[in-house]
Amino acid sequence: MIAARTALAAMAGLVVVGLGYAAGRWSAPATAAAAAAEGPRGDHRTPASTAPLLAPQPGAQDPEMLRRIVREEVRSALREDLARPGGPERAVDAAPPADPLAEAATALARPEARPHAEEALATLDAAVARHRWGEADRQRFTAAVSLLEPRARVEIERRLMVAMNRDELVLDPGTSPFEAPGTGR
Amino acid sequence: MNRLLAAGVVVTSLVTASTALAGQKGVPQFILTRNTDGSGSVQGQMASVRSSADTAGYLSATVYNYQSGDGDRYGYVQVRDAGGAYGGCYTYDAALLDVMARVQGDEFLYVQWDTYARCTMVMVGHGSQLAPKTP
Q1: Given an 8 Å threshold on Cβ–Cβ distance, is B86 in contact with A34?
Q2: Rounded to a whole number, what is the distance in Å from the CA of A137 to chain B's nearest CA?
């Protein structure tokens, strides 16, 4: 299943690459100077897909009619579920998976190392509250997580990465989340 | 196997592109895509990111191996563009780690991650049109 999903994702990637090529992203020919000028394109933030699930298709039935049918199917399924003895099991099954980050990363640390995990998380929480990640944060954070075993460290670092990815934290200029690239930890 | 197949298709497509114009030299754009839910992707080539005019951007893939046991092999990808936007992901997936560990300076890298900063796809492309990393 994982392999299949990955293959599908890879194909999606091929489309991206192909589109990139078609759009001239894979530009050619190019000189060394052009290569040097070819830099990052900035923050290409894109919104999550908002494409309607029932977008009109040529020859398809009336989209509004399809929506009504789907709504009625869903209502019917919910009614059956609620009427079943024992309650709405399906509703429970359909609940979103638990946030993996809600797992206490501190629990992954050895008992004697948990204060370091808590310090790292406190540093992260304080930075998120300020919406900034500066060099002092990085130093305190890396000093704390460096005392944890790998699994606990990764889970806490991943929390930091999630905050960065979601723009809950903004890096101060010249600051990296963990370390300067190429310098090691 | 599917990953290998996908990688093979990439290689084939890149080679096909290069044979259409012999001696072609390509410079893949460095593109960081960040969605509002925290998921995202990055594509770029190590060498071209390094040789870009700005001094802020970087793209890195790191794999850690520990002797101690299960769960102690992991890797992460970090990217920062010229504007300071950051993205990255972690993985424990053995297949993804194998791909990440093979990344070379002249290769094209495409990585996707989910809302929890977990890498969901890593693709490495090789092509004659890609320049090697230079100082």
Answers
A1: no
A2: 16
